[in-house]
Amino acid sequence: MTKVKEIIDRLQVDFPEKLASQGDPVGIQIGSVDQSVTKIMTTLDVRPNVVAEAVKNGIDLIISHHPVMFHPADNLDFSDPQKRMYGQIIANGITVYSIHTNSDKAQNGSSDWQAEELGLTAIQPFCLDDDGIAIGRKGKLPETMTAKNFAYYVKEKMGIKMARLITADNSKQIETVGFICGDGGKFWRQAVADNLDAFITGDIYYHTGHDIVSSGLTVVDPGHYTEKIFKYKMYDLLKKWNTANKWGVTVEFSKVSTNPFQDLF
Q1: Could you tell me if 172 and 242 lie in one domain?
Q2: What pLDDT, in 10s, does the model give residues 43-89?
């Protein structure tokens, strides 16, 4: 019978926990490395609807991008929906393992997956973290386009309904692009320092947007949920490793949306 530890050991080859940014709570979130595994589910987030899906489908191991606990729980009062979810995970014998910034920084991880999705060429590391390892990527678009058309390009490539364009000039010519997966607004000045035409990241703050416009940089904010690419790519890897290592497990990805926002037009 395959144990959680065997799965984690293989994940650690490509996504070592030591790559994670300082203070990022990756790794085992809830559960045990000694637990037996028959069914694995990949997900971007671990939210109550994801846990309900996992319980319904008899999942033993959830592999998520976002950690379940960014902050320690001060109690396990089940009147709080988040803490009740922890109880449901434990009661149903589910182990949760999270691969966050170590996926962003790994070779052939989240950043490279999104570079591929965006169709970038001449891809290079972008924005070094404290350990000197890049947390993002930069590259060139297949062809030069205006800032406004670039925003539509990002929207199409990422398969999203809406993207926010931050620019002083809709007709600015865009060729070189950098990006940070998820919430990378604090890194926009690095895009300026690298003389990039544009930067892609989610969750841009209103006043940061003003500073970006003043700087002359163009930014497209596609939202945070574009990181859902993780659950599909991780699913593909686990399917391949399952066959190669004869784990004999079933692998699936979460079918529910954990995007808290609705696009209304």
Answers
A1: no
A2: 999 999 999 999 999 999 999 999 998 888 889 999 999 999 999 99
Contacts of 53-60 spanning 24+ positions with Cβ under 8 A: 53/254, 53/255, 53/256, 54/92, 54/94, 54/254, 55/88, 55/92, 55/94, 57/252, 59/94, 59/252, 60/4, 60/35, 60/36, 60/93, 60/94, 60/95
Residues 4-50 have pLDDT tens digits of: 999 999 999 999 999 999 999 999 999 999 999 999 999 999 999 99
d(CA 245, CA 232): 20
Assess whether pLDDT exceeds 80 at residue 248: yes
Q: Rounded distance, CA 262 to CA 265, Å?
A: 10
Asked whether residue 189 falls in the same domain as residue 202, the answer is yes
Q: Which CATH number fits the domain that encloses residue 57?
A: 3.40.1390.30
User: Are 19 and 48 found together in one domain?
Assistant: yes
Asked if residue 263 belongs to a domain, the reply is no
Q: Domain residues for 130?
A: 107-223
Q: Residue 61: which of 111, 10, 19 has the closest Cα?
A: 10
Neighbours of 232 (CB within 10 A): 12
State the residue for tokens 């595994």.
37
